[in-house]
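Consortium newsletter contribution from the modelling node. Members have asked for a concrete example of what our holo predictions look like. Here is one, prepared for the zinc ion complex that several groups have been discussing at recent meetings.
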Amino acid sequence: MANCIATQEIHQKYGGVVPELASRAHQEQIVPTIEEALSIAKMELSDIDAIAFTRGPGLMGSLVVGVSFAKALSLAIKKPLIDVNHMKAHVLAHFIENEGTAPPSFPFLCLTVSGGHTQIVEVLGSNNMSVIGATIDDAAGEAFDKAAKMLGIDYPGGPELDKIAETGNPEKFSFAKPRIKDLDFSFSGLKTSILYKIRDLSQDNSDFVRENKIDLCASIRKSIVDILIDKLLKAAKQRGIRTLAIAGGVSANRELRRRLLALEKEGYKVHIPQFEYCTDNAAMVAIAGKFAFERGEFASQGVSADPRLKW
Ligand code: KG4
Ligand code: ZN
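And here is the predicted structure:
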């Protein structure tokens, strides 16, 4: 197996993902990345059984590059196409072979937290899952990135904020807590609360952010993780499900991982993906493709990218 990722450093320079630049980078890197993956896996194109690709949700320009390339490759090597839903692939990342760790048993709840989505997914089978809670505004990753930006941390700020937070005091600052019913999430109120706190406290001390950066990071991280864990536990109690998992870029967050692990003491079975399968990766698309392959579900050459692909 090979799981190759072409990192797009260009986004750091612009402080966010510029769609036009992202799709150009995809176009430039897709062939070298596939060549690299084949070389690591010691395989030839002729060894491939099928080509799985992400149909959506995501940025149109980037999806089009992947879909078009997959179609062309399918025609060239005469192998079938498999379309994959990006969010389902994040959940199925738990089934990538992992020495010594068994995949979650059904049913389980998966908190899928990325830069674009925040969802609680009820997973009854590899092809039977539904979203039972979601954000009504910003995604958790977006909340991390926007808060990090307020602290002067470069994009994507989530991982760096997480690193800085490790030695900070999470109780030093408190922020407004959202009151959203059912299993849904909201992060826009928290974002405003952080902004106002920084603005107010910077009025008396222009060095406030610099002097308190570590404690601000720890307090912000705790606020976001509290929101996520509260809703996940609410969902677990409501559905009577005792197996919990996390997925998506934010599942790399150290505090979220620790807090989930701590739930084992309360009798929950928890599943935390390896770091390399948390953020976007090709292996999760391949495993989702493998499940579809086994069911005999293939896409036609008429398939198109869908930036808002539903479940
Ligand atoms: O799943 P992903 O790689 O891409 C999307 O599909 O969005 O998630 C990226 C998001 C970014 O917002 C990034 O800041 C966040 O995941 N992220 C983290 C951490 N690592 C990645 N957020 C908090 N703590 C982390 N350690
Ligand atoms: Zn993702």
